[in-house]
């Protein structure tokens, strides 16, 4: 366990959340893009004592295989969603027989993007106070 000296931490223990959130640019820590864990694991006790059941079987069948962990980063995920939306729209333009189904898929992606934007607005409103 390491001990930090008094001047090494940009956040002081006696400062409130307002001072941390609204602090000057010099006091703010740089935001780094932190990658997710490579494999999400259950706790060791859950692995030891849990008996396999129907829910475990269904989850193992439905859970997607993620070959690239960087897709779990928000920016990369929404970039992949936009790419999928563009491909679906291009496929709908080419395939007249399945165009209605593909346009519904595009509408679902648009709806999810709009809901995420609304969530971001609420989050910013809460932080701003």
From TrEMBL:
Pfam families: Type_III_YscX. It comes from the Bacteria. InterPro entries: T3SS_YscX (IPR012672). This is Succinylglutamate desuccinylase.
């Amino acid at each position: 366990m390491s001990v930090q000296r008094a001047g090494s931490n940009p956040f002081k223990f006696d400062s409130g959340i307002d001072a941390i959130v609204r602090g000057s640019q010099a006091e703010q820590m740089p935001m780094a893009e932190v990658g997710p864990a490579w494999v999400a694991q259950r706790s060791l006790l859950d692995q030891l004592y849990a008996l396999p059941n129907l829910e475990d079987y269904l989850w193992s069948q439905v859970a997607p295989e993620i070959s690239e962990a960087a897709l779990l980063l928000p920016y990369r995920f929404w970039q992949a969603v936009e790419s999928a939306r563009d491909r679906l729209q291009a496929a709908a333009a080419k395939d007249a027989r399945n165009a209605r189904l593909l346009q519904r898929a595009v509408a679902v992606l648009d709806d999810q993007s709009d809901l995420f934007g609304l969530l971001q607005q609420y989050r910013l409103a809460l932080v701003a106070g």
